[in-house]
Amino acid sequence: MKRVRTILMAVTLVTALLLSLGAVVAASDVVSVGAKDFAEQLMLRHLVAELLEVNGYSTSRTLGLGGDQLVFSGILRGDIDMWVSYTGTLWAVILGNPLEPGIDPAELYEKTKAALKEQHDIELLSALGFNNTYVFAAPRSFVEKHQVSKVSDLIPLAPSLTLGGSLAFMGDRPEGIQGVERVYGMKFGRTRPIESGLMFQALQLGQVDLIVPFSTHGQIAAMDLVLLEDDRNLFPPYDAALLVRGELLRERPELREILEQLAGKLDDTTMARLNYEVDGHRKNPRAVAVDFLKEVGLWQD
After folding, report:
1. Confidence of residue 91 (pLDDT cuts 50, 70, 90)
2. Which residues have a Cβ under 8 Å from the Cβ of 83 and sit 6 or more positions away?
3. Which of these, 49, 153, 164, 294, could form a disulfide with 299 (CB 3.0-4.6 Å)?
């Protein structure tokens, strides 16, 4: 009887060990996709995760994180495997490089890709196809009243205007409000940091005179806003592309081919349309992502 108990205990211990090892392996097989906390990022997170899952991978989807550095730190720690970001943000905010006015988008992409690989062993995959840069946007009535068409036309008006922008834009980003004041030499009478999704509501309510949203915000077209030309080339290209940990791609080289299917699939107009589905029509970001994958033939039921 004692021998039987000993055998049973041994079997129990081995089984527990195998289950534990299996859990570790299973956890390591999960691919983590990160995102910041606004509609475009959340939809792109689902887009990448759904593409992976339809190709047989398990994924975890991080909750929207507030800042670029927070998401990037997660990648460096290995807590996040991949994240869609933007070349201008990566070059200036993440890598800490000065922005060159008027830099060619392709040149900025290549420089950013090389620096991420060399400094952090992070791969920047092919651009998705859209440039999500900052833009000055104003109601058509404002543009017609003041006869403005470019940002420099605002210089004599700025002291009497209230400008709305995202928390990041109104913070310490070199291409944000600090860059506007430096490059254009103007200071607005009042600046209002506003959560990205609420900027358009603030404009409708007359709380601000004009705003600086991302160019792919769907509400720009829906509200018939006019975009002012950045005639002094303050805003760099913000071409969207997927960052992936180099270690992950070495472990699973087949992931590159799967993820590269998204290359060039999203132009500015398409991205604005998808964003408006989420922000304007209040659709679930995951449902919008799945519908788009079906639209471009990358979804299998």
Report:
1. very high
2. 33, 34, 35, 71, 72, 75, 242, 243
3. 294
Q: What's the pTM?
A: 0.82
pLDDT of 208 strictly over 80: yes
Sequence-ordered list of residues with C-beta below 8 angstroms from that of 218, at least 6 positions apart, any chain: 272, 273, 274, 275, 276, 277, 279, 280
Query: CA 156 to CA 164: how far, in whole Å?
Result: 18
Which residues fall within 8 angstroms of residue 6, CB to CB, at 6 or more apart? Answer: none
At 28, is the pLDDT very low, low, confident or very high (cuts 50, 70, 90)? low
Domains in the chain with CATH codes: 29-132+237-295 (3.40.190.10), 136-228 (3.40.190.120)
Q: Can you state the angle between helices 285-295 and 39-54, rounded to 10 degrees?
A: 50
Tokens of 61: 């989807």
Q: Which residues contact 9 (CB under 8 A, 6 or more apart)?
A: none
For residue 137, the SS3 value is: strand
Banded pLDDT at 27 (limits 50, 70, 90): very low
Rg (the chain; Cα; Å)? 23
Q: Give the pLDDT of residue 24.
A: 36
pLDDT tens digits for range 250-278: 999 999 999 999 999 999 999 999 999 99
